[in-house]
Amino acid sequence: GIQVEQSPPDLILQEGANSTLRCNFSDSVNNLQWFHQNPWGQLINLFYIPSGTKQNGRLSATTVATERYSLLYISSSQTTDSGVYFCALWYNNNDMRFGAGTRLTVKP
Amino acid sequence: DGGITQSPKYLFRKEGQNVTLSCEQNLNHDAMYWYRQDPGQGLRLIYYSQIVNDFQKGDIAEGYSVSREKKESFPLTVTSAQKNPTAFYLCASTQQGRQGTQYFGPGTRLTVL
Lengths: 108, 113
Fold this sequence. Notes:
The structure holds two protein chains of two kinds.
Chain A: E1 4-7, E2 10-14, E3 19-25, E4 32-37, E5 43-48, E6 52-56, E7 59-64, E8 69-74, E9 83-91, E10 95-98, E11 102-107
Parallel strand pairs in A: 2-11
Antiparallel strand pairs in A: 1-3, 3-8, 4-5, 4-9, 6-7, 7-8, 9-10, 9-11
Chain B: E1 4-7, E2 10-13, E3 19-25, E4 31-37, E5 43-49, E6 56-57, E7 64-66, E8 76-78, E9 87-94, E10 103-104, E11 108-112
Parallel strand pairs in B: 2-11
Antiparallel strand pairs in B: 1-3, 3-8, 4-5, 4-9, 5-6, 7-8, 9-10, 9-11
């Protein structure tokens, strides 16, 4: 089956710093999503980005489907950005496969 | 506001008991999903349903059962056959199946005593 690998597994930043999270996948995909899971467990959609680049405020994402990776950029990080970031891909028509996540801690 | 609700937020169960987790959505989405999340792990698919009265097993369906009698509702029953049910359970929905953005409920944390 498709493999989804995220890096780094853990990331600690000082407030105001920038960061890049990476998602590598083993097969071609039609769609990819980035999620943020807050400390209470709620998963929030960040981007639906099968290809190209999107931006939403301090966050942006780029997916290069031909090279099988996606990047999530966080600029001017805030403590509220802390949590776990997941990328997920649709696989086998109806199965969404998640990576293991990147745990981000932003210190004040 | 449209969204997905799950209840209860916390659930405690004795070994050998079946429990049912509720998931309701008012987004008019066709497809609904149940995931399990263990500490420090990603999400794994338990069951999904593309339309009413139809559902399919995911990767870890053993010990779980579902029903889809209404478009809005997709309850998950954790049976006594599930050997290690303590986990965080998340329900999700999409409008267009695999082509759509997936939205999640707030989750139910199940603990077996």
